[in-house]
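User:
I study polymers; will you set down one protein's sequence and backbone structure tokens?

Assistant:
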Amino acid sequence: MSHSLFNDVFLARRTILLRTLQRMVRNHSTAEDLLQETYLRVTRALGERAIDHLEPFVFQTARNLALDHLRARRIHSRTMIDDAPLSDIHNVVAPNAALEDAAHADRLLESLNASLEKLTPRQQKIFTLSRLNGCSYLEIAEQLGVSASTVQKELKLIMAICVAVAARLDH
């Protein structure tokens, strides 16, 4: 079956297809999107094989796409908790997990603190200005009288140390 015949069928049945999709999904723009997807899917199918009964195939493709959309929307609405208060969401976590997380965080902070104390005074100042005060490389460079490149290199080294500490604790 030729692509031009499909175009003729699609254009002749476009309005009824659109109305059918609108009734199913109850949204005009979604129905338009599904209609476009129907066109693309049928075009792709025609490129792969011959279709004997084109009009029913077009309608079934549109219907299947609408059903897939409705199914996805239903699953999404069951799994999403957009309206749940944040306090309820935080209370879902098991209490034991919170204690384990707190203990891990304490160990991480102790290890990071020990590693950061071994840095030179300039490196400690760069870390503090960057990560705790939110200063840019240029601001730090001006305060310390060094180049922005030096600040960047020092901070890269410091962050590598932090990452290594965290990795050691995770293993």
About this structure: The longest helix spans residues 54-79. The chain is about 80% helix and 0% strand.
